């Protein structure tokens, strides 16, 4: 991945934080009243449920404009503004996700069925490996709730994930220059996949997930660098051996399988000790924040890695 470049979000595009907060409380009350999710996915709407406070980071939300216009989704291009500009022709419905491998009940889930799993709001801190971070109110459900339905076998130790391949709808997959091999693939250990913080997200900011953020369903693993959070998933496989991952295959010296957020392990080309919270402070004079071990989720996840050398297993 290229080194960090400052966001190109005009200040005028960023709504003041208090307006976001008031919008959020509106969405919250709409949800309690049992209203549908906004956006194009009316048929997919599912009621929101209150989430436990441990799943809500108590830090200012990153403006929605920044969340939806500044990100990585190489299937739509390699620049931060490419996904929002090039994802308009992508069709997130109809959609299905195949779950196979070492499971008692392999199954193809239609999106409507996935939306029937109880959806919750989770406000997570997200840290990109390139040095920027955001706080995003996701909507989704624990991956464990889905895995339970297919009954993983005792031999299953890892979970691998695959993004859709559609060059006709994803310009980054169709051009002469191919930045990555497709499909984009990612993986987790089964215990990481089953951790209550790990969700499949179907929305953000109270709305159906925008195409550029991984519609209609993407992974969110908040204690790992952002590239683990694979988008537009079509296949989830339970496997015995550590799966291959796109970024490790592309550059194993720079990107490991674990990719836990770790201020003590530098990327070979830059420090991971600090981060810039997008939307905070503008271009100049923006104070970088200290990056926290496991992105601030150490209390919940550090025990998963007891006895593991996190410098060797980066
Ligand atoms: N998933 C796919 N399929 N393709 C990608 O290029 N980029 C990753 C991740 N998931 C990527 C992907 C990276 S590097 C980051 S930082 C996050 O998506 C950023 O997207 P978000 O802001 O919507 O979480």
From TrEMBL:
Binds 1 Mo-molybdopterin (Mo-MPT) cofactor per subunit. InterPro entries: MsrP, OxRdtase_Mopterin-bd_dom, OxRdtase_Mopterin-bd_sf, TAT_signal. It catalyses: L-methionyl-[protein] + a quinone + H2O = L-methionyl-(S)-S-oxide-[protein] + a quinol; L-methionyl-[protein] + a quinone + H2O = L-methionyl-(R)-S-oxide-[protein] + a quinol. It comes from the Bacteria. The keyword Metal-binding applies. Keywords: Metal-binding, Molybdenum, Oxidoreductase, Periplasm, Signal. Its cofactor is Mo-molybdopterin. PROSITE patterns: TAT. Residues 91-247 form the Oxidoreductase molybdopterin-binding domain. One of its GO terms (biological process) is protein repair. The keyword Secreted does not apply. Predicted to be exported by the Tat system. The position of the signal peptide cleavage has not been experimentally proven. It holds the Pfam family Oxidored_molyb. GO terms for molecular function: metal ion binding; molybdopterin cofactor binding; oxidoreductase activity, acting on a sulfur group of donors, quinone or similar compound as acceptor. Its EC number is 1.8.5.-. Mo-molybdopterin binds at residues 71, 74-75, 128, 163, 213, 218, 229-231. SUPFAM superfamilies: Oxidoreductase molybdopterin-binding domain (SSF56524). Heterodimer of a catalytic subunit (MsrP) and a heme-binding subunit (MsrQ). Part of the MsrPQ system that repairs oxidized periplasmic proteins containing methionine sulfoxide residues (Met-O), using respiratory chain electrons. Thus protects these proteins from oxidative-stress damage caused by reactive species of oxygen and chlorine generated by the host defense mechanisms. MsrPQ is essential for the maintenance of envelope integrity under bleach stress, rescuing a wide series of structurally unrelated periplasmic proteins from methionine oxidation. Belongs to the MsrP family. This is Protein-methionine-sulfoxide reductase catalytic subunit MsrP.
């Amino acid at each position: 991945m290229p080194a960090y470049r400052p966001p190109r979000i005009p200040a005028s595009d960023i709504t003041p934080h208090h307006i976001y907060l008031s919008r959020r409380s509106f969405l919250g009350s709409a949800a309690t009243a049992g209203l549908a999710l906004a956006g194009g996915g009316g048929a997919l709407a599912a009621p929101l449920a209150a989430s436990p406070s441990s799943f809500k980071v108590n830090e200012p939300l990153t403006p929605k404009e920044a969340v939806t216009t500044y990100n990585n989704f190489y299937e739509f291009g390699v620049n931060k503004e490419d996904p929002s500009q090039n994802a308009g022709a992508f069709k997130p419905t109809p959609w299905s996700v195949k779950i196979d491998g070492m499971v008692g009940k392999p199954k193809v889930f239609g999106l409507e069925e996935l939306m029937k799993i109880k959806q919750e709001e989770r406000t997570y801190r997200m840290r990109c490996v390139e040095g920027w971070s955001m706080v995003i109110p996701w909507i989704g459900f624990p991956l464990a709730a889905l895995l339970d339905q297919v009954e993983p076998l005792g031999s299953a130790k890892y979970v691998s994930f695959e993004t859709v391949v559609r060059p006709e709808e994803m310009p980054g997959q169709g051009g002469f220059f191919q930045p990555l091999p497709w499909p984009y693939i990612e993986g987790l250990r089964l215990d990481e996949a089953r951790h209550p913080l790990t969700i499949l997200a179907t929305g953000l900011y109270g709305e159906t997930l925008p195409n550029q953020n991984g519609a209609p369903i993407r992974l969110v693993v908040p204690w790992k660098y952002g590239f683990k959070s694979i988008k537009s998933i079509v296949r989830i496989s339970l496997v015995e051996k550590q799966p291959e991952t796109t970024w490790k295959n592309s550059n194993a010296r720079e990107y490991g399988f674990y990719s836990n957020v770790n201020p003590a392990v530098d990327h070979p080309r830059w420090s991971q000790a600090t981060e810039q919270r997008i939307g905070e402070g503008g271009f100049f004079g923006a104070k970088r924040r200290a990056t926290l071990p496991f992105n601030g989720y150490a209390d919940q996840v550090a025990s998963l890695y007891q006895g593991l050398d996190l410098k060797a297993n980066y």
